[in-house]
Amino acid sequence: MFQASADRLDLTVFVAGAGQAGARVAQGLRAAGHRGAIVVVGEEIHAPYERPPLSKELLLGERAVEDLAVVPAVEWAALGVDTRLGLRVAGFDRDAGRARLSDGTTVDFDVAVIATGGTPRRLSVPGGDDPRLRVLRGLDDALALAADLRALAGTGRLAVVGAGVIGLEVASTARRLGVDVAVLEAGPRVMARVVSPDVSDWLADVHRAAGVALHLDTRLEAVEPIGSGFRLHHRGPSGAATLDADLVLVAIGIDPAVTLAEGCGLPVGDGMIVDRFCRSPADPRFHAAGDVACVEDPATGHRLRLETWRNAENQARAVAEIILGRAEPFAETPWMWTSQHGHDLQVVGRPDPEAVVIRRGDPADGGFARLWWRDGRLVGGVLVDQGRDRRFLEQLVTEARPVDPAAPADPSRPLRSLRAG
Ligand SMILES: Cc1cc2nc3c(=O)[nH]c(=O)nc-3n(C[C@H](O)[C@H](O)[C@H](O)COP(=O)(O)OP(=O)(O)OC[C@H]3O[C@@H](n4cnc5c(N)ncnc54)[C@H](O)[C@@H]3O)c2cc1C
Predict the structure, then answer these.
(1) Which has the closest alpha carbon to 261: 253, 270, 252?
(2) Does any ligand 1 atom lie closer than 6 A to the CB of residue 41?
């Protein structure tokens, strides 16, 4: 069990961002015995909440806002965290160890954590700045989208720009609510950043079978307002065309929220750059956690930025311990999940173009997997409706055990048995 250094227990810790990672840093500090002041500042008015249900259960009406708290209200109150919501952190004076807030107040600190997440990208085409175009990042976005989708059920049309995880989850949810859905994707396949090509093809078919009009290799060129809706001008394999929609969701990814780090001279790239201990190389008092952190992976030495729930959980807990003197670096085997049209996809690791794809089972079997094998080892894979195997796949990947590729290709051999061998 982690033992905090006694000389670090009374430090004042300042956390910018009251999201999942920010909340877990505060909770992790207290769990490890920290007694000093913790100040968490968040620009949203909501107490820290979980985002994955925003595109799934909350949108469907299967989960209530009150169930989304990262830390239940009573427990949070007991942590004694100075929580300031509805306020932006405007900047840092690093020499003074001071944060400036949007209401003009300041907070002095010993250690700071930047946990500011990411900001949805906007369209850069003519008409793409129409404020009625939707994005989905926060609770307010989700509540507004949920109300609009309900109003569209039966007769309305939703256009989703971007066939990444969030766009496809909303497409799936909207179909379940009875809304007509079209998805425009500039690339040749869906969820290309996350899964291998044959899983993309399978998933595209699942969406089509559920009634989603999927336009791949299709670039949006302009957004024209027509009445209360929109006409989307796009160009695809069969040339220029238009698509009319009552509602448009722009789901083309996020940019890590690095303004604060950049503003006080900390290095940024694809996120706030931090070392294996999630500390800025320019100033070890500053840490990063969650979607904003671009961290050095101790296994490969490469920098990695993950936009996943578990990364926010684990990295934030690691940062809390590192602040209190932990000597082991942060390491994470990437894992994320998504649910679409009743299917559960679990992705371990990251797609590796050099890896051989091992086919385990077939979609017709009800569940299947595509595993990535390289240099004699499994480096990740996608499990479709086989979530029970996730733990075993992660263990095989994390432990980097040599695996004969014929073994996982046989679906009758449980993945857990490969670990035992
Ligand atoms: C709709 C949706 C569905 C998702 N589904 C999944 C899923 O199925 N599986 C999965 O693994 N992951 C999923 N994710 C990703 C996961 O939720 C994120 O990785 C996680 O929320 C990241 O946590 P974070 O604390 O880094 O960022 P956030 O939770 O975004 O928190 C950052 C907070 O910082 C605040 N902030 C930013 N700048 C400032 C400032 N200057 N001052 C004060 N506050 C500031 C922001 O307003 C925000 O509240 C989903 C995300 C979304 C949006």
Answers:
(1) 270
(2) yes
416 lines ligand 1 (CB under 6 A): no
At 141-151, the pLDDT tens digits run: 999 999 999 99
Distance from Cα 20 to the centre of ligand 1, integer Å = 6
Ligand 1 pocket residue status of 347, Cβ below 6 Å: no
The class level of CATH for 342-420 reads: alpha beta
Per-residue pLDDT of 211-266, as tens digits, reads: 999 999 999 999 999 999 999 999 999 999 999 999 999 999 999 999 999 999 99
Name the segment(s) of the chain with CATH classification 3.30.390.30. 342-420
CA-proximal residue: ligand 1, atom 7 (nearest): 52
AA letter at 77:
A
Closest residue by CA, ligand 1 atom 16? 309
Per-residue model confidence as pLDDT tens digits over 296-314: 987 778 899 999 999 999 9
What gap in Å lies between CA 123 and CA 193, rounded to an integer?
A: 19
Of 216, 226, 149, 136, nearest in space to 180 by CA: 149
pLDDT for 420:
62
Using most ligand atoms within 8 A of CB, pick from 51, 102, 119 the residue to mutate for ligand 1.
Answer: 51
Question: Looking at ligand 1, which atom is closest to the CA of residue 102?
Answer: 42
Q: Which CATH architecture has domain 139-252?
A: 3-Layer(bba) Sandwich (3.50)
pLDDT confidence tier of residue 86, bands split at 50, 70 and 90: very high
Domain 6-119+255-323 belongs in CATH node 3.40.50.1110 = no
| Residues whose CB falls within 8 Å of the CB of residue 307, separated by 6 or more in sequence, listed in order | 118, 254, 291
Portions of the chain given CATH number 3.50.50.60: 6-119+255-323, 139-252
Q: For position 304, what pLDDT does the model report? A: 92
